[in-house]
TrEMBL record:
One of its GO terms (cellular component) is extracellular space. This is Probable pectate lyase C. GO terms for biological process: peptide metabolic process; protein processing. InterPro entries: CARDB (IPR011635), DUF3344 (IPR021779), EF_Hand_1_Ca_BS (IPR018247), EF_hand_dom (IPR002048), Ig-like_fold (IPR013783), NosD_dom (IPR007742), PbH1 (IPR006626), Pectin_lyas_fold (IPR012334). Pfam families: CARDB, DUF3344, NosD, PKD_4. Residues 1184-1204 form the EF-hand domain. PANTHER family: CARBOXYPEPTIDASE D, B, PROTEASE M14 CARBOXYPEPTIDASE. One of its GO terms (molecular function) is metallocarboxypeptidase activity. Residues 318-397, 406-491, 913-980 form the PKD domain. PROSITE patterns: EF_HAND_1 (PS00018), EF_HAND_2 (PS50222), PKD (PS50093).
Length: 1204
C-alpha cells in the first residue's frame, strides 16, 4: 500500500477511535451574540472532536490544547487573527493532533511544532497569510501536515515565508506563494518525503524553494507547479543538495492538452524555460536543469499547469468543494447542490444534515428540507488517490413559512367519459386549509365541503368546476373551465393527440447555464373530427429528478379536429455551471385524461443539447468566473489623456495580412503638449474570429522596432482578455483584447506598430482578423487642470436576438464599474466617457450610465472599426459607484472593449511646496553611501540638496557617499511657481570611522552604462588586504532582474579552483581560493572577479555585494565595507569616439545630448555633424529627426543650432 495513503487511513482510524460520540459546535463573534467573543475561550471550553466556527471580526492570539479540534473561520476576507497561533499550546506540552485551521487571515506567523507538545496530521487550508515578518515565516514542525488552498504573500522575513522542519510526509498543494522577500518556503534536512504540487510560486525575491542542509536526507517530489519570476527557481544557499529530488511526477498522469489526450510523466512550468515541443504534447523536449546540483526536470511543462486538464488515473488526491442554491428560504426548501471538487473524484457522499448519515451519492443532487433550522452540509469525495471532505457550517438556513392564505388547486380523474360519469376530485391546494367549497358545475351552489369528494355527472355535456379553500388568513378559488366532458353511453374515442413536429430549445443549439431556458413543442396535433379541450402538455428535463418530474406544464384550452398548434414552455431550472447535456421530453395529455384512439404516441424528445454559457450575454453575469469590464488603471494628476485609434482601413480579415500589417501614428495624432511628462502609454491590440489552433493567437508584434511579443499571446508580455459565443456554428471563434505597456518605447514624434504571423507562417498563424489598434497616452503637465482617469479593460462579445442567440437587450449588456477613486462631484467641471467597441455601428448599441439609457443606437462605426463612442457624462456622475453599460441592439453584434472615464476639476491656485525628505542609512562607518528620498508635497519643480560636507545635488532623489567621520546636517530646498520651502535636519547623518579591517569591496566602474542586448564588464575590487587573502565566497545581486543580468564571470589567474551559480542570473554567488598565496599581505586594488553584465531593457538597476566568507591568509574573517554600484541600460550605443550614449534631457523624444555628458552644447552639434551617416545607419531616425521630416539631413544641424 502507498505509504501516504496508509498514513491517511491510519489517521482517520485514530480520529474515529478518539473523537467523542457527541461532538459540539461552538460559535465565536467578537461583537457578542455568540457562545464566546474570543477564540481562546472557545478552545478552552471545547472537547476533542468539536468544531469552533468563527464569525467575521478581528481576533487575538490563541493556543490549541486538545486533539481533533476544527477551528473554521467564516472566510479569509472576513476573519483576521492578528497575533500568534500555537499548535500545540507551548506551556503545557498539550496534544493538538488532528487540528484543522481554515478560512481566516493570519498576520503573525503560526508556530506548529511537535517539540513543544504532541501534534501531527495538522491541516491548514483556505487561509491568507499576509505580511508575515519572521525570518523563517510559518513554522511547520509536525508529522504528516497538509497545507492546501492557502495564499502566502508579502512576507518580509529574509529567509522564507514558510519553513518545513522535522516534518515528514508533508503535502503542500494548491497554494499561492507570491511577493515574499525570502524564498516561498524552505525544506530543511530534518524534513522528509515532501510532496509539492499544484502551487503558484510567483515573484519571490530570493528563491522559489530553498533546500537547506539536505544532504542524503529523504525524497521530495515536486511536480505540476508554476515557477514564475522568482529570484531563482531553487537554491541550496551554499549547503549540500539533497540526494534525490523528483522534479516531476513519479507515475504517469492522464491529461488533456490543446484538445488531445495523453498519458505521461509531468514536471513543472518555469517562466524562463525556452525549450521546444515538437510533438505538441505540452511537455518540453529539452530537460530543465535546476541550479545548485538540485537535479533535472525531465518533463517541463510548456504552459502553466492550469492549461492541462487531468483525468484518468494519477497521483492526485481530490479536493472537495461545492455550492448550493438557494441557501436560505422557507420550509419546505428544495436545494440544488453542485459539486465543484477538483482532482477528478469518482465517488461522492453527501450528508445534508451532518448527522453522519449519507443522504445521497449523486454528483449534483437536490434535497428538500422540511423543517426550520440551520443545517451543516458535508461532502466527501474520493478517487483512487484518496479522499477529502468539505464541511460548511450552518450553510442552509430554513425558516418557518409566514402565515398566508391558501392557494387553491385540484385535479380530477377521469375528466371525460360516458354518462353516468363518476369523477374523483383531489385537493392539490398549497397552504393550510380549514374549509373546502366545491361547485362541480359552476352554478354558484356548493355541492360538497369534503376535502377529496366524488361526484357523478348524469347528463352529457361540458362542465366547469370551481374549488374555494379558506383559512384564518383568507381564501382563494380555482376555476377550471370546461374541465369535465361527459358523452353519451356507447361513444368511442375518435381523436388522437400526438406531437408531429420537434421538441427544441430556443435557440436550438444549446441549453444555457445560469438562466431559464425556453422549450418549443412544434405541431401538437389533434387527429380526428371532434374539438378537444383542456389538453395538458408537460415538459421534462433529463437532469431534473432524472426526467421524472415535469419542469413546466401548460394547458391548450381548445384544439379543433384535424388541427395543430405550437406550444412554448419555460424550464425554470438554474444550472450554475456548464458541462454535460440536457434532453427535453414533451408529453401531451400526460395523465391520459382524454380518450384517444392511440395512447402510445403522446411524447417526443429533443436531441441531447450541450449545456453552455451564453457568450452573447454580459460575461460578468452569465459566465462562471467571468468578469465585468473592470478598472485596471487609475490616475489622479495635473495633465490629461490622449488617444488615437487607427482608421477602419487598418482592419484585416482572416488570412488577408500574412505579409504583415503596419499601423503608424504621427506626432499630430497624439499631440503631447510641450513640457509634459509621460506617465503611461498603453497599446490596445484587438482581434476577432480567431481560429488559431489552441485557442490563442500566435503573433509577432513590434512597436517602434522593438519586439513586444513573439508567440502565444496568452503567455506573452501583455494582459489578454477573451470572449466567444460558446455555442452554435461559431462557438469557438474568439474575440480578444491584448494590452501592452509601451511607455518606455513611445515617441512623441511618431510611432509604428507592425503585426506579422508567428514564424512568418500565415497558414498556421494568420487565422485571425485584426481590428484597428489604439494608443492611449497619459501625461502630466503643471499647466493643465487636475484629472482623475479610470481605465477599464476586458473583452465582451454581445449580440441581441431572442431566436438566434437567446438574448434580450438587458442580457446582452456588458457592465463597466469604475472603481479605485472617489470623485468630488461639486468640483467637477467635465466628465467624458470614451466607450471603445469593435464592430459597433452604424446606428448600433445603447449606452447606459448609472442605470439610465443615455444614448440609443449610439455607435457609428462599422464591422471594421474599434473606435469609441464619446459621451459627456458630467450630469450623471456620482461620488462612487459609477458604472457604464454597453448594450447590444442588433444580431450583428458588437465587441465591448476598453472603457475610459476622464473627470476634470476646476482649476485651483498652485500651492507652495512643503519640503521633506528621508534617508537610508542615517548612520554607519566610512565610506557611508546614503540614498536620499524627496517626500515633499505641493508638486515642487526643482530641488537643491546641501549634504553638509560641501557637496550638493539638484536631483530629486540623489545618492551621496560620506568619506569622513562626523555628524552632518542636511538641507533640502524645493521650489515651484508658487514659492519655495526648505527642510533642515541637524546632525542627521552620523558617520563613524570604520572599525577592524579597512578593506572595502567596490565595483569598478561604480556606475556603468550599456545598451539593450549588449554587454559590458564590471570589476569587483578589494581596496587592500593588510593580512593577505586565502579565499572568498561572495554574492552579487542586481535589484531589478528586468533591466540587466550577469552572463559571465572571469576570475583572476590566481583563482585556480572556482565555483559559482548557474548563469545567466541576477543574484549569483562566487567562490574561489588563493592556492599559491598570490595575494600577499598589503596587496592593494585586487580584482576579485570580472563580471560580464548584459542589458535587457531600458532602465536602471543597483548592484550590491554580499559576503558569506572573506578570509585572511591566517583564516581569520575579514569584515569589509561594501559599496554599491549602478548600471543603466539605454536604448542607444555611444557615437564613435564617445564614451556615453546619447540622452534625451527634456523628455521630448529627441536625443539632443549626443555626447551623453548630461548637457546640451555646441559640442553636441559638432558630434551630430560628423556622425550623420552613422546615425542614419545605426540609430532610430525618429530620435534625431529635429526638423520632423523623417530623415537625417543638414537641416537637422541647423535646427539644433537654433535650439542653442
Amino acid at each position: 500500500m502507498n505509504k501516504r495513503i496508509f498514513i491517511i487511513l491510519f489517521s482517520l482510524l485514530c480520529t474515529v477511535l478518539i473523537t467523542p460520540a457527541e461532538a459540539n459546535t461552538w460559535y465565536v463573534d467578537d461583537d457578542g451574540g455568540a457562545d464566546f467573543t474570543s477564540i481562546q475561550s472557545a478552545v478552552n471550553a471545547a472537547s476533542s472532536g468539536d468544531t469552533i466556527y468563527i464569525r467575521a471580526g478581528t481576533y487575538e492570539a490563541f493556543e490549541v490544547s486538545i486533539p481533533f479540534l476544527s477551528i473554521i473561520g467564516e472566510g479569509s476576507d472576513l476573519v483576521t487573527v492578528n497575533d500568534r497561533i500555537d499548535i500545540p499550546q507551548t506551556a503545557t506540552s498539550a496534544n493538538a493532533t488532528g487540528t484543522v485551521l481554515e478560512g481566516m487571515k493570519i498576520t503573525t506567523e503560526p508556530n506548529i511544532r511537535s517539540d513543544t507538545g504532541t501534534a501531527s496530521d495538522v491541516i491548514i487550508r483556505d487561509c491568507l497569510f499576509d505580511g508575515l515578518t519572521s525570518s523563517t515565516g510559518i513554522k511547520m514542525q509536525v508529522e504528516n501536515p497538509t497545507f492546501e488552498h492557502n495564499i502566502v504573500s508579502n512576507s518580509t522575513g529574509k529567509y522564507a515565508a514558510m519553513s518545513i522542519k522535522s516534518s515528514n510526509n508533508t503535502i503542500i498543494s494548491n497554494n499561492t506563494f507570491t511577493a515574499n522577500i525570502g524564498a516561498a518556503f524552505t525544506l530543511y534536512d530534518t524534513g522528509r518525503n515532501t510532496i509539492v504540487t499544484r502551487n503558484n510560486i510567483i515573484s519571490n525575491a530570493y528563491a522559489g524553494i530553498e533546500f537547506y542542509a539536505n544532504a542524503a536526507i529523504g525524497v521530495n517530489t515536486i511536480y505540476l507547479n508554476n515557477f514564475i519570476d522568482n529570484g531563482v527557481i531553487a537554491t541550496t544557499s551554499g549547503t549540500t543538495a539533497p540526494s534525490l529530488t523528483y522534479w516531476n511526477s513519479t507515475e504517469p498522469i492522464a491529461y488533456t492538452y490543446n484538445g488531445q489526450t495523453y498519458t505521461g510523466y509531468m514536471g513543472n512550468y518555469y517562466s524562463d524555460y525556452n525549450g521546444t515541443d515538437e510533438n505538441n504534447d505540452g511537455i518540453g523536449d529539452i530537460p530543465y536543469v535546476l541550479p545548485d546540483s538540485l537535479g533535472t526536470d525531465n518533463y517541463p511543462l510548456m504552459q502553466s499547469y492550469e492549461n492541462y486538464n487531468f483525468g484518468g488515473s494519477g497521483p492526485v488526491i481530490p479536493v472537495s468543494a461545492f455550492t448550493a442554491s438557494p441557501t436560505s428560504g422557507d420550509a419546505p426548501l428544495t436545494v440544488q447542490f453542485t459539486d465543484e471538487s477538483t482532482g477528478s473524484p469518482t465517488s461522492w457522499a453527501w450528508d445534508f444534515e451532518n448527522d453522519g448519515i449519507i443522504d445521497s451519492t449523486n454528483q449534483n443532487p437536490s434535497f428538500t428540507y422540511t423543517s426550520a433550522g440551520n443545517y451543516t452540509v458535508n461532502l466527501t469525495v474520493a478517487n483512487a488517490g484518496g479522499s477529502d471532505s468539505e464541511v460548511k457550517t450552518d450553510y442552509i438556513v430554513v425558516n418557518e413559512p409566514l402565515p398566508e392564505p391558501p392557494v387553491a388547486d385540484f385535479t380530477a380523474t377521469p375528466t371525460s367519459g360516458d354518462a353516468p360519469l363518476t369523477v374523483n376530485f383531489t385537493d392539490a391546494s398549497n397552504g393550510t386549509v380549514s374549509s373546502y367549497a366545491w361547485d362541480f358545475d359552476n352554478d354558484g351552489n356548493v355541492d360538497s365541503e369534503d376535502e377529496n369528494p366524488s361526484y357523478t355527472y348524469e347528463t352529457e355535456g361540458t362542465y366547469s368546476v370551481n374549488l374555494t379553500v379558506t383559512n384564518e388568513d383568507g381564501s382563494d378559488s380555482e376555476l377550471k373551465t370546461d374541465y369535465i366532458t361527459v358523452t353519451q353511453a356507447g361513444q368511442v374515442a375518435t381523436n388522437d393527440l400526438s406531437i408531429s413536429g420537434i421538441v427544441n430549445t430556443v435557440p436550438a443549439s444549446a441549453v444555457f447555464a445560469r438562466e431559464t431556458n425556453t422549450v418549443k413543442v412544434l405541431n401538437v396535433k389533434n387527429t380526428g373530427t371532434a374539438t378537444l379541450t383542456n389538453i395538458s402538455i408537460a415538459v421534462y428535463a433529463s437532469d431534473v429528478s432524472s426526467g421524472t418530474v415535469p419542469v413546466d406544464t401548460t394547458t391548450i384550452a381548445s384544439l379543433a379536429g384535424d388541427s395543430k398548434t405550437t406550444v412554448t414552455l419555460i424550464d425554470p431550472t438554474i444550472r450554475d455551471l456548464e458541462g454535460g447535456t440536457v434532453t427535453y421530453t414533451a408529453v401531451v395529455d400526460p395523465d391520459n385524461l382524454i380518450a384517444e384512439t392511440d395512447e402510445t404516441n403522446n411524447n417526443k424528445s429533443s436531441s441531447a443539447k450541450p449545456l453552455r454559457y451564453n457568450g452573447y450575454k454580459g460575461k460578468g453575469i452569465y459566465w462562471e468566473g467571468g468578469s465585468n469590464i473592470t478598472t485596471k488603471h487609475t490616475f489622479d494628476l495635473q495633465g490629461n489623456l490622449l488617444y488615437s485609434t487607427q482608421p477602419d482601413s487598418a482592419y484585416k480579415s482572416v488570412g488577408a495580412w500574412g505579409s504583415g500589417r503596419t499601423e503608424t501614428w504621427t506626432a499630430s495624432d497624439l499631440p503631447v503638449p510641450s513640457g509634459s511628462t509621460i506617465e503611461k502609454v498603453f497599446l490596445y491590440f484587438a482581434y476577432n474570429w480567431d481560429q488559431t489552433a489552441g485557442g490563442y493567437p500566435w503573433l509577432n508584434l513590434s512597436f517602434n522596432g522593438n519586439i513586444i511579443e513573439n508567440g502565444n499571446l496568452s503567455t506573452g508580455n501583455g494582459n489578454l482578455y477573451r470572449d466567444w459565443s460558446n455555442f452554435g456554428a461559431y462557438a469557438d471563434y474568439e474575440y480578444g483584447l491584448c494590452v501592452y505597456d509601451v511607455t518606455d518605447r513611445f515617441s512623441s514624434s511618431g510611432n509604428s506598430f507592425v503585426t506579422t504571423p508567428y514564424d512568418g507562417d500565415n497558414t498556421l498563424y494568420g487565422k485571425v482578423a485584426l481590428y484597428p489598434s489604439t494608443l492611449v497616452v497619459v501625461y502630466r503637465n503643471a499647466n493643465e487642470t487636475r484629472k482623475q482617469i479610470f481605465i477599464n479593460e476586458e473583452c465582451d462579445e454581445l449580440g441581441l436576438s431572442a431566436s438566434s442567440y437567446g438574448t434580450t437587450s438587458e442580457e446582452a449588456t456588458a457592465y463597466a464599474p469604475f472603481t479605485g477613486m472617489s470623485i468630488d462631484v461639486e468640483k467637477v467641471t467635465n466628465a467624458m466617457l470614451y466607450s471603445f467597441a469593435g464592430s459597433a455601428g452604424p446606428d448600433e448599441g445603447n449606452l447606459l450610465f448609472n442605470g439610465n439609457i443615455v444614448a440609443t443606437n449610439a455607435w457609428q462605426g462599422s464591422s471594421n472599426t474599434a473606435s469609441p463612442l464619446v459621451f459627456d457624462a458630467t450630469n450623471y456622475i456620482n461620488a462612487t459607484g459609477n458604472e457604464a453599460g454597453i448594450q447590444s441592439t442588433t444580431s450583428g453584434g458588437m465587441d465591448a472593449l476598453q472603457q475610459i472615464l476622464v473627470i476634470e476639476y476646476e482649476e485651483s491656485a498652485p500651492a507652495e511646496p512643503v519640503a521633506d525628505f528621508t534617508a537610508t542609512p542615517t548612520s554607519g562607518d566610512t565610506p557611508l553611501a546614503v540614498n536620499f528620498t524627496d517626500t515633499s508635497t505641493g508638486s515642487p519643480t526643482s530641488w537643491f540638496w546641501d549634504f553638509g560636507d560641501g557637496a550638493n545635488s539638484t536631483e530629486q532623489n540623489p545618492s551621496h557617499t560620506y568619506t569622513s567621520a562626523g555628524n552632518y546636517t542636511v538641507n533640502l530646498t524645493v521650489e515651484n511657481e508658487a514659492g519655495s520651502d526648505f527642510e533642515l535636519k541637524s546632525s542627521y547623518i552620523e558617520v563613524s570611522e570604520a572599525s577592524g579591517s579597512t578593506v572595502t569591496l567596490y565595483f569598478d566602474p561604480e556606475s556603468s552604462s550599456v545598451p539593450e542586448n549588449e554587454s559590458t564588464e564590471i570589476n569587483l575590487v578589494a581596496s587592500n588586504f593588510p593580512a593577505g587573502l586565502s579565499g572568498y565566497n561572495l554574492t552579487v545581486t542586481l535589484d531589478d532582474p528586468n533591466v540587466a543580468e550577469i552572463v559571465d564571470i572571469e576570475y583572476p589567474s590566481w583563482a585556480l579552483i572556482t565555483e559559482n551559480s548557474t548563469l545567466p542570473g541576477t543574484s549569483i554567488y562566487m567562490k574561489t581560493v588563493d592556492l599559491e598565496d598570490s595575494v600577499k599581505e598589503g596587496a592593494a586594488d585586487v580584482v576579485l572577479a570580472t563580471l560580464k553584465v548584459s542589458g535587457k531593457e531600458k532602465g536602471s538597476a543597483n548592484l550590491s555585494i554580499g559576503v558569506k566568507r572573506l578570509e585572511e591568509d591566517s583564516g581569520d574573517s575579514i569584515e569589509p565595507a561594501l559599496l554599491a554600484g549602478t548600471i543603466e541600460v539605454t536604448l542607444l550605443s555611444p557615437l564613435p569616439d564617445q564614451e556615453y550614449a546619447p540622452r534625451d534631457l527634456d523628455g521630448d523624444g529627441l536625443y539632443e545630448d549626443l555626447t551623453g555628458n548630461g548637457e546640451f552644447s555646441f559640442v553636441d552639434i559638432v558630434a551630430y555633424f560628423h556622425n550623420m551617416d552613422w546615425i542614419e545607419e545605426n540609430m532610430p531616425v525618429e530620435y534625431f529627426d529635429f526638423n520632423g521630416n523623417g530623415r537625417i539631413d543638414f537641416d537637422d544641424v541647423v535646427d539644433m543650432f537654433a535650439m542653442i
